[in-house]
Specification:
8-stranded mixed β-sheet; 5 helices; single chain; two-stranded antiparallel sheet
Length: about 210
Amino acid sequence: MDIERFSSRSARGQLRTQQMLRRVLDSAAGVVGLERDQWHKELTGDGEIDVLPPGVDVTRVVGDFVRALTTALGEVNEDHLREDRIRLRLAVHYGAVAHGALGFAGQTVIVAFRLLDSEPLRRVLHEQPDLNLACLLSESLYRDAVATGLSGLPPSAFEPVRLQVKGHSLGGYILRDPGGPYRPVDLTHPAPREPDPDDAGWTAPARRRD
């Protein structure tokens, strides 16, 4: 299964934020043919955890859905003042997910939460005030969906980050410009693999927030 969590920073209260969040998620999913009524959803205050059903093409989620979500956010924010915009942090990971009495559980969920709450992802929105979406992929998902050329997003559009969380090292890749002019996905002619940023031995260190 695939897990996604979206967390927004709206200035107007939890209910309004949730309504706007559902609106942009429904719109983006509809554009790329993902059926939101089949997603397992869990609200988390001003965010949402979404577990997609088995069989969903993760390359579509990484490529087409992320781009459609960026477009939907732009359309929604056109109708609001700058301080009332909805800006999202999106972390995407995939793997097995269990559903227990307290909600979704499992290592996949833990990894997604850690990526979402990471300082590098928060820093993207802070450093780029005009950006509506900050997107971070897990290391394994990046290698399967992006480095292979299947998502339509070039590896050069991502910045690698390395997190240290509770004594464990966790890798991820931040998409710097989700609204970039990337090519459509063509599975009959996959893009050649670009050099992986990690091939150069560089990772962005995680910094503590003051």
